[in-house]
Automatic annotation (TrEMBL), chain A:
Rhodanese domain: residues covered: 34-78
Gene3D superfamilies the record matches: D-Amino Acid Oxidase, subunit A, domain 2, FAD/NAD(P)-binding domain
UniProt-recorded name of the protein: Sarcosine oxidase subunit beta
Keywords: Cytoplasm, FAD, Flavoprotein, FMN, Nucleotide-binding, Oxidoreductase
Localization per record: Cytoplasm
Catalytic activity: sarcosine + (6S)-5,6,7,8-tetrahydrofolate + O2 = (6R)-5,10-methylene-5,6,7,8-tetrahydrofolate + glycine + H2O2; sarcosine + O2 + H2O = formaldehyde + glycine + H2O2
Cofactor field: FMN; FAD
Single GO cellular component term: cytoplasm
UniProt xrefs under NCBIfam families: soxB
Organism of origin: Methyloceanibacter methanicus
UniProtKB/TrEMBL annotation, chain B:
Identification of the protein by name: Sarcosine oxidase subunit delta
Any one Gene Ontology molecular-function term assigned to this protein's record: sarcosine oxidase activity
Lineage: Bacteria, Pseudomonadati, Pseudomonadota, Alphaproteobacteria, Hyphomicrobiales
Coiled-coil features, chain-numbered ranges: none
An example Gene Ontology biological process: tetrahydrofolate metabolic process
Amino acid sequence: MRYSIASLVANALTGNRNWKPVWREPEPKPAYDVVIVGGGGHGLATAHYLAKEHGITNVAVIDKSYLGSGNVGRNTTIVRSNYLLPENEPFYEWSMKLWEGLEQDLNYNTMVSQRGVLNVFHSDGQRDAFVRRGNAMLLHGADAQLLDREQVRTLVPFIDFDNARFPVRGGLLQPRGGTVRHDAVIWGYARSADTLGVDIIQNCAATGFRIENGRILGVETERGFIGAKTVALSVAGSSGRVAQMAGLRLPVESHALQAFVTEGIKPLLDTVITFGAGHFYCSQSDKGGLVFGGDIEGYNSYAQRGNLPAVEDVAEGGMALMPAIGRLRILRSWAGLLDMSMDGSPIMDHTPVEGLYFNGGWCYGGFKATPAAGWCFAHLIATGQPHPHATAYRFDRFGTGRVIDEKGVGAQPNLH
Amino acid sequence: MRITCPYCGERALDEFTYRGDATVKRPDSLDENTAEAWVDYVYLRDNPAGPHKELWHHGAGCHAWLEVTRDTVTHEILDVAFARKGC
Ligand SMILES: Cc1cc2nc3c(=O)[nH]c(=O)nc-3n(C[C@H](O)[C@H](O)[C@H](O)COP(=O)(O)OP(=O)(O)OC[C@H]3O[C@@H](n4cnc5c(N)ncnc54)[C@H](O)[C@@H]3O)c2cc1C
Ligand SMILES: [Zn+2]
């Protein structure tokens, strides 16, 4: 059913008893043209664009759990295209453009809110770095504004401008950045892919791959073998575990990242704000809670939970930037499993197994990438060629030295 | 998570810094034939779900490098030894 004002009124008048489930629950068929392993944001966006842009609809998306159980339902929902390096910025700006048209494309309210992303800075050196970043963004057609201290004050008057160690000197603002309702993104892509003929199969973990003479023949799953000449992996924090079943070793470590939400309060923060002297980022949800997070845990982990040192660090960052947050109680905290790549940038490529494709290494920043990752991964799968915006995301960059290290810290995932 | 340092005893996690997988082997030559071994050493990881041998530095304690065996699924610490053998 197409959602419209007419469908809304008609259903309201009939007591909202006639809404249909948003996607089917099909049994897996014996074989498909393409099987996508991982029904997170990236897997479902890939299915949507494969069907819609390339006409490939004999597709299954399998997930080991329910839709939205992974990072797509656990992130802090920030979207932005404020990258520095030329391998990254065009890709993320393309993602931003897709976010801007997503609700029309999906006929689904994903609550794209371009409330701005404000990165405050605290020193002259940091301002110079942000000027450089802002210029790189402008060169790639994104938007960026350098704000002085007083301009920052008009946006967020309550932050600690005169903190003794980290006084606020100004900020870099991307007005088109903001937040997107993460659950709606997954449901919107799932509904669209399903409508276009894609089978979405939940509670169906991939347990192995059938590979003969270097070629993929299909996926072993909890619900039996599913044949496919093309298999696309998009399992985020489980990348290492799943790739291992195909005999691959990846330049990836799995790490946990926590996030937090406070009790709901009246409107306080109408932009996304990030602290420049530590790792802390915060926005206010539509229900009124402040949603925030900071650094990853910093050690390999497949546990979807973190430890107290990271909580303390996030709380200290929050208190240094916006002391008012100290009056609020935290309602909930949780963690997700990140696929931290060795240079902090993603991988989207063929693998040595013919017909097996890989998308991963999105670290803590793959939610904003969801539309473009789906778009470019679908392009790679359908045409065999990398999309022009994703040509740098190759496996062989680690061997050739063409790594994409935004932070310039080297092959150490917990520093990215 | 707490780590029991062989010198200092049981200490809080924030006294330690994590380096990563302790099983990767540094090739001993810069010879061209070792290029692949270097890529393997610097970038590729087994990243297991389960017991993992890893290096931690006790920076806020005795400054020793430790080889810790820890379960990445439960965070349980299974073993702690000095990274340098024969200490
Ligand atoms: C706390 C937190 C905050 C974050 N904040 C942001 C943010 O503000 N902005 C941003 O851009 N990014 C953010 N991220 C990162 C972002 O959420 C991820 O990079 C992105 O969601 C990963 O892609 P995905 O949605 O496809 O992953 P997921 O939703 O994790 O999808 C992977 C799927 O694979 C499935 N799977 C795993 N193994 C198997 C198997 N064997 N068989 C079948 N299926 C399998 C899983 O069940 C899961 O559903 C954050 C992440 C976390 C954890
Ligand atoms: Zn010690």
